[in-house]
Automatic annotation (TrEMBL):
Residues 40-84 form the Helix-turn-helix domain. This is Helix-turn-helix domain-containing protein. It comes from the Bacteria. It comes from Bacteroides muris. Pfam families: HTH_17.
């Protein structure tokens, strides 16, 4: 094991900067603490709720109808955004049925 020695003043400066960093991170966590992933829905939840296929869900994302967030290649939706498009999906379902198609 290699031993590295530094001056006391340098060590104290490092500790002070680290303490400021910790306080800053704590403040950020408190400010954004109410945003938990438990409130978000994934693709399967949305497809089940709206009774649509994954491809239709992709189209809703692509054309900007449904807002989403992506974390580590997984897509999440806020429940209030999904509720807002229920009427849109129902209208599209009626149009498709009129044309003899399904969505």
């Amino acid at each position: 094991m290699e031993i590295v020695s530094i001056e006391r003043k340098t060590f104290e400066a490092m500790v002070a900067k680290f303490d400021r960093f910790v306080r800053h991170m704590d403040a950020i966590c408190r400010r954004h603490g109410e945003k938990t992933m438990g409130e978000w829905m994934d693709n399967q939840d949305v497809c089940r709720m709206l009774n649509i296929s994954p491809r239709t869900l992709q189209t809703l994302r692509d054309n900007g109808t449904l807002a989403y967030s992506q974390i580590n290649h997984k897509t999440y939706y806020r429940p209030d955004d999904v509720q807002r498009i229920v009427a849109v999906v129902e209208d599209r379902r009626k149009e498709a049925k009129f044309k003899g198609r399904t969505i």
